[in-house]
Design a protein that fits this description.
This protein has 59 residues and is mostly helical. It is built from 2 helices and no strands.
């Protein structure tokens, strides 16, 4: 699932990159190992939250 914010292009880009990292992290957990997958998931969630924060502050 990707989040798109109509009020901020930057927030949308940051959030889409974060959601992509979460998906990548899930794939890495299955193939490479748990540690690299969890690291990608944590960074992805942080970026998705940052995108939400940017969007809410722009209003």
């Amino acid at each position: 699932m990707f989040f798109w914010y109509r009020n901020s292009f930057l927030a949308s880009v940051v959030s889409i990159i974060g959601c992509g990292l979460v998906i990548l992290g899930i794939s890495l957990c299955k193939s490479e190992g748990i540690s690299s997958g969890i690291l990608s998931i944590v960074i992805g969630v942080a970026l998705a939250v940052l995108g939400y924060w940017i969007s809410s502050n722009k209003n």
